[in-house]
Structure formats: C-alpha cells, structure tokens
Q: What sequence folds into this?
C-alpha cells in the first residue's frame, strides 16, 4: 500500500502559501517554484537512480551539471544568429542543439567516468566519497582550463524571453518552458521505468541487486546505462539552469549539488517519484520563503529536509530497505 | 540411477577471512529431489550461494550439465536454467505480483500455458496478481518466490528453506505444491529444516556439518534409521514431527 500523505504535501504547501500573499504573486511564485523544481529534478534524477541501483554516492555529479552548462555555451556561441532571430523555429533549433549536445557530451563523460573511476569502488562508500570528490575537483579544473574562470554569458532564445500574463501575474516564458520540458522528461522516465522491461529491471535492481542477477540479468551493464543516462540528464539540467541564470561559472554544478542532495534525500534514496516530488517541494519552498521572509531563504530547504526527515526518516518514498 | 545434473567436487568457499566450505562433494540426479540437511551454520546456504555464483568458490569444481560453472557470474549461471529461491525469498516488495513473475520470464513475456500452470499450483497468486508484493503474507511471498522460479521451464530449482517461519497450514500447501513439481520430474535441490517435508519430498539426501558433507544416501534410508538421524542431525525425524 503506497502512503498517501506524502502526495498531499505539494498541494498543502501551495495552499498554505496562498493566503499569505496576493493572488498574482502566488501564481508567479508557484510557476517559478515549479520551474526551479523541474530543473532540479533533471539534475537530481540521475543521482537518485545511480544511488538507488548501485549504492554509489557520486559527489562528482555536479561536474556533469557544469559540463552541460558549458557545452550549451559553446554550442550557442556560433549560433547567436539563430538565438536572436525573429523565427521561433531557428530559436528552438538552437536551443535543441544546445540541449542535445549538453546531454550527449555529459553522457559520454559519464561513460568514461564510470569505466575509469566508479567501477573500482563499488560497495565501498568511503572510497566512493573520496574518489568522486577528487573526480569533481579534476573535472572543475579541466573546465577552468578549457573555458576559463570568468563568467560566460548565455542568452535565452528570443522566443523564450520576456513574459506573459496569467491571472494578473507576469509569468516568465522560460519558466513555463522549463515546466513543460521537466514534465516531458518526467513522463518519459515514468514510461520507461513503469512500462518497459528495462525499467522493470531497474526498479527491481534498486530494491535487490543480487536477486536480479540470480534471475539472469547482467546488472553491471544496466548500471553503466543508468549512469550514462543520469550523467546526460545532469548535463541537460545544467544547460537548462545556465540558460535560466543567463550566465555560467565553473561553480554552477557545485552550487547546485547541495540542493540536488536535499532533493534526493527528501524524496527517498533511489526513488524517481520521490525525487520529482522532492524537487518540486524544494523549488516551491525556496520561492515562497524567498518572497515571504528573504532572510530565512538560505536555510529554508535545510529546514524543509529536517522537518521531512523527522516525519519520515527514510524520505517521502523510501525504496526497499534503504 | 538417473544422470547427474549437478555435481560438486571438493568445493571450498571463503567469505572474507572465514573458511566456510571445506571440500563439499555431492551430486543432484536429474529429475529427482535432493535434500540438503544439516544443523544451523553447517554451510547449507553457503553451498547454494556458491552454486549460484553469489559467492565464488576458492577451490573445487561445480559442474552443471557437464559444464564447469564454478567461476561463472551469477547471471550466466541463471541463464543455464537454474532458478534460485533464497532463504529471504528475494521478493521485490515494491513491484506487483505480476511484475515479480514477469521478471523471471523470457523476452516474450508470459507463456499462457506456464502462467496457467503456476496459477493452478498457487491459486492465491491469481487473487493478488496486480497487488504490490510487499502486502503479501509470508506464506504468499514464499509461494510467489517458488512460482517465479517455475514460471519458465528450468532445469534445476535451488531452494533454500522455503518453510522457514511459515504457519503449519501454509507448509502443507507448499508441500502439496512441491509434490506436484516432483510428480512432473522437476529436478530440485532443497535445503530444509522441516523433516516432514524432507521425508515427503526427498529422493536422496546429503547431510552437512562444519562445511563438509558427512552423509549421502537415499532419503528413505535416513528416514528409516533413527540412530543415524540422531548421529547426523542431533534429533530423530520422528521426534520433530
């Protein structure tokens, strides 16, 4: 029997915030929170799956986020004409090229990282922490060597700039696009995990790897696939976040990792549905508290995590015995 | 004498610094039920896990249908047609009953006649087919674990203490299920502490002590020899019924 209460948390938080602000502010902040949550979900879902399936704590995950952001910069730089063109087709083609390149390069980097680093530390948490933190430092320095330390500007495509009116609130077009893309990715992941054999094996592997192997599945190969997909999603999320911020720095991934870990812990280690709910909760809380009590904004997500763990110590949707 | 489907020769297994199996030798004849008995800690579970490649033997041979599988990885061993039901049952509690069964089928999914066969053997599974497996009782989980092992044609079932912790009524149901498998000449290697079950099902028996096989023979001979039971297992079968 699945617990019902965690599903109610999102609407409860939205309803609690409603009487504390004007209607248009509530609409704008809710859309902003959902957009931020969707981008966080893209960045965190890979980490959740990797931990869930193979019990690997990958602190280098932030490196894939940063890499995705810089690949987007590099792809969009020669496409400035398309980015600023009056044609929405050219705008979206430039954006699609940047997203696709970010996902492919980050996925390829993930493939190499798994083969060179991760494969040697399966089952050893302390070594995983040390070597993946080391991997993150190396990745950051490589990125600095290639792209430098100066923040690089990144323009949104012309069609996604500006805002539109919804219920008296001005909604940024880009945020709406982030919500749509996030929902599409979530729907795709949900379909793969719940409607395909590979997804079934992944879900089973998150719960009991050994038994999956005893049923004849080569889970190590599956893990490589999941690691690559997780890295690609992190790169995609990094590219999305960078365009949202309109600037890229070498610290973009490391800065997001705190929120990414909070999302994964709140959701329940290894749970994609939990990761999705956790990301939206973090996005909404950050926006509501940032508006209502800006001085508390910095600690609001830590407080959210503490409260949720006091209520459900294994996260909102714990998987198996984790 | 039936052909030998599985043969263990001089199998040693270490788990970390501990030397658990000290040269295990026994064989499982094709089409028969072989009981592996012994006191707690004798090495029965380690033997089964070594067969499945979940712990790699450090010495010795494990031959299945003429092929040495001692150094093979678990998925490759399973793909040879060996189904394993661990002591913990290995049920995926977050998946539905249907999904648990589906995982053990080939790429084409359920074969209608096999599914019908399994549901006829354990009717309760059909009632819970689309429910989350975590909500099943211990006995239902055990039936699901065995159903999963036989949802495809397997050459050997390796089953570890299926009656552990189950109510007597459920054990009777399980024994009936195993008897139907036995009647279909399914080859089974069964670790069991329930002697009623061992006597009802076993064709041959191997008894372990301290990581070694200390007795091999026909189950009927052991069941008939109270002194031997007391010598090997500490208690007679009759005393435990």
A:
């Amino acid at each position: 029997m699945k617990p019902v209460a965690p599903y109610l948390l999102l609407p409860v938080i939205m309803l609690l915030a409603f009487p504390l602000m004007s209607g248009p502010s509530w609409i704008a902040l809710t859309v902003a929170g959902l957009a931020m949550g969707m981008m966080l979900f893209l960045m965190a879902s890979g980490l959740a799956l990797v931990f869930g399936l193979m019990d690997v704590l990958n602190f280098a995950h932030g490196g894939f986020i940063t890499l995705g952001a810089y690949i987007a910069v590099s792809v969009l730089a020669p496409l400035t004409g398309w980015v600023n063109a009056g044609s929405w087709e050219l705008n979206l083609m430039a954006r699609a090229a940047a997203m696709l390149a970010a996902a492919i390069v980050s996925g390829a980097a993930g493939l190499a990282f798994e083969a060179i680093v991760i494969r040697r530390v399966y089952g050893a948490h302390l070594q995983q922490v040390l070597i993946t933190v080391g991997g993150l430092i190396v990745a950051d320095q490589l990125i600095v060597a290639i792209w430098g330390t100066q923040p690089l500007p990144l323009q949104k495509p012309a069609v996604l700039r500006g805002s539109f009116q919804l219920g008296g609130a001005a909604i940024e077009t880009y945020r709406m696009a982030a919500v749509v893309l996030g929902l599409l990715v979530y729907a795709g992941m949900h379909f793969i995990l719940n409607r395909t054999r590979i997804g079934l094996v992944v879900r089973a592997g998150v719960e009991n790897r050994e038994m999956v192997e005893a049923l004849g599945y080569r889970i190590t190969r599956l893990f490589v696939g999941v690691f690559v997909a997780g890295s690609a999603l992190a790169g995609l999320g990094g590219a999305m976040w960078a365009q949202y911020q309109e600037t890229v720095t070498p610290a973009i991934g490391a800065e997001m990792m705190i929120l990414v870990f909070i999302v994964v812990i709140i959701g329940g280690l290894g749970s994609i549905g939990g990761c999705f709910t956790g990301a939206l909760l973090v996005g909404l809380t950050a926006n509501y508290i940032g508006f209502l009590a800006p001085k508390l904004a910095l600690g609001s997500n830590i407080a959210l995590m503490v409260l949720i763990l006091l209520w459900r110590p294994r996260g909102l949707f714990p998987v198996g015995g984790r | 004498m039936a052909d030998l489907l599985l043969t263990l020769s001089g199998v040693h297994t270490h788990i970390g610094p501990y030397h658990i199996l000290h040269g295990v030798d026994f064989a499982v004849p094709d089409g028969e039920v072989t009981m592996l008995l012994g006191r707690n800690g004798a090495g029965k579970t380690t033997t089964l896990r070594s067969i499945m490649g979940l712990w790699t033997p450090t010495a010795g041979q494990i031959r299945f249908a003429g092929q040495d599988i001692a150094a093979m990885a678990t998925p490759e061993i399973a793909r040879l047609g060996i189904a394993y039901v661990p002591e913990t049952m290995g049920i995926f509690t977050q998946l539905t009953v249907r999904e648990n069964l589906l995982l053990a089928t080939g790429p084409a999914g359920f074969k209608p006649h096999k599914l019908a066969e399994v549901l006829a053997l354990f009717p309760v599974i059909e009632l819970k087919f689309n429910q989350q497996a975590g909500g099943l009782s211990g006995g239902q989980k055990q039936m699901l674990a065995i159903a999963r092992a036989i949802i495809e044609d397997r050459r050997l079932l390796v089953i570890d203490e299926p009656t552990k912790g189950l109510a007597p009524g459920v054990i009777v149901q399980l024994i009936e299920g195993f008897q139907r498998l036995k009647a279909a000449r399914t080859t089974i290697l069964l670790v069991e502490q329930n002697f009623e079950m061992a006597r009802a099902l076993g064709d041959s028996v191997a008894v372990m002590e301290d990581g070694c096989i200390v007795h091999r023979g026909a189950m009927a001979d052991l069941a008939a020899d109270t002194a031997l039971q007391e010598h090997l297992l500490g208690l007679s079968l009759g005393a435990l019924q």
Residues 90-154 of chain B form one domain.
